[in-house]
Amino acid sequence: MSNKALSQLGLAMRAGKVISGDEIVTKSIRSSEAKLVIVAGDASLNTRKKFRDKCGTYQVPLLIGFDRESLGASVGKPERVVLALTDQGFANLLRKTVSMTSEVEYIE
């Protein structure tokens, strides 16, 4: 099931609907451009808390799961700790897919 979610993430990346990187994702949350934020499960506690708080404040759905290697590989880049989907359709599709898997520890 997680392979399907990561494939969907790759598809969104090819469509130009994924952004990555701490500062860019934070800006997209503030500007309401981010429709879903994904933080790697092996990210530091500070990083997870930062994005949990930021997403809670701006009411952006947050998903914590996978690991940094698989997130990076799914979008064709080296390790990624935080990604944001900027398209509501892809965000809904990914949320529906991951709600059926146990590899994601937190989704809001």
Q: Which class best fits the helix and strand makeup?
A: alpha+beta
Amount of beta strand: 15-25%
Shape: globular
- Ends: how far apart? 19 Å
Total number of beta strands? 5
Question: How many individual helices?
Answer: 5
CATH architecture verdict:
2-Layer Sandwich
Count up the domains.
1
**Poorly predicted runs of 5 or more residues:** none
Task: Please summarize the sheet with the most strands.
Answer: 5 strands, mixed
Q: Give the radius of gyration.
A: 12 Å
CATH class: Alpha Beta
Roughly what percent helix? 40-55%
Strand order of the largest sheet: 1-4-2-3-5
The CATH topology turns out to be: 60s Ribosomal Protein L30, Chain: A
In round numbers, the mean pLDDT is: 90
Short description:
With 108 residues, the protein is of the alpha+beta class.
Question: What are the salient characteristics of this protein?
Answer:
108 residues, alpha+beta, 60s Ribosomal Protein L30, Chain: A, 5-stranded mixed beta sheet, 5 strands
Plain-language structure description:
The chain is α+β, with helices and mostly antiparallel strands. It has a single domain, classed as 2-Layer Sandwich (60s Ribosomal Protein L30, Chain: A), CATH 3.30.1330.30. Helices cover 50% and strands 18% of the residues. It contains five helices and five strands; from the N terminus they run αβαβαβαβαβ. Helix 3 links the parallel strand 2 and strand 3. The two termini are 19 Å apart.
Task: Describe the secondary-structure layout.
Elements: H1 2-14, E1 18-20, H2 22-30, E2 36-39, H3 45-58, E3 62-65, H4 68-74, E4 82-85, H5 88-98, E5 104-107
Parallel strand pairs: 2-3
Antiparallel strand pairs: 1-4, 2-4, 3-5
